[in-house]
Amino acid sequence: MKLYYAPKTSAFRCRWMLEELGAPHELVNVSLQRGEHKRPEYLKIHPLGSVPALVDGDNNFIESAAIVMHLADKDPEQRFAPAPGSPERGHYYQWILFAMTNLYQVIHTPYLRYFFRNENASAEEREALARHLAVTDALLRDQPFLLGERFSAADVVFGGLLVWAETCGQLLGREPHTSYLARLKARPAFQRAEHD
C-alpha cells in the first residue's frame, strides 16, 4: 500500500491507522507548498488534487475517513472495527459520520486559518465546538473510547479532528475530551505517525 500524505492534514488519520495496523506501506510526502498535489501525475491518483490518497493494489482510495475504514476492515485480526450487523458496528458508523459531518464543519475553518495564518480559534468557534462535543460528554466520562473499552477506527477519525481543534486553540482544556485525546496521543501508533 502507498499513502500520499502531507503533514498536519487529514492524511494524518490515515497514517495513524496504518501505524495501528502495523501493515507494510510506503509513505509519499506530497508537498503542498510546491504544488505537487496539482501535478498531472498526482491528479490521476486523486482527481481533486488533495491529500490523502491511498493506492492499494489496483485501487485508489480518497477521503480520509473512507481510507481509515477500509484499512480497519483489512486487518486480519479485526481489532479496529466491530462485527458487521452488530449494535457496536452501528455506533462505530455513527461516531465516524458524526465526526466527519458535525465536528468537521465546526473545526475545519478555524484549523485552516491556523494552518495558513497562525490564528487561533475565536470564542464563538470554541463555543460551537463545545455544543457539538456535549453529545459525547457523558460517554467519554464513563469509558476510555467511543466504543467502550475497545479502541477502534472511530477513535482515529474522531480523535484526528480533536487534534486539529487542540492545535488551533478550539478545544482549550475541555473535559472529558482533553483526557480522551491524551489517551489517544499516548498510543505508540499515534506517536509514530506524528513524526514527519
Question: What key phrases describe this protein's structure?
Answer:
four-stranded mixed beta sheet, alpha+beta, globular, about 55% helix, single chain
Descriptive account of the structure:
- By secondary structure, this protein is of the alpha+beta class.
- It is 54% helix and 8% strand.
- The chain has helices at residues 11-21, 40-43, 64-74, 87-117, 123-133, 137-142, 153-167, 177-185, 188-194, and strands at 2-5, 26-29, 53-56, 59-62.
- Helix 1 (11-21) links the parallel strand 1 and strand 2.
- Helix 1 (11-21) crosses helix 7, helix 3 (64-74) runs antiparallel to helix 7 (153-167) and helix 4 (87-117) packs parallel to helix 7 (153-167).
- It is globular.
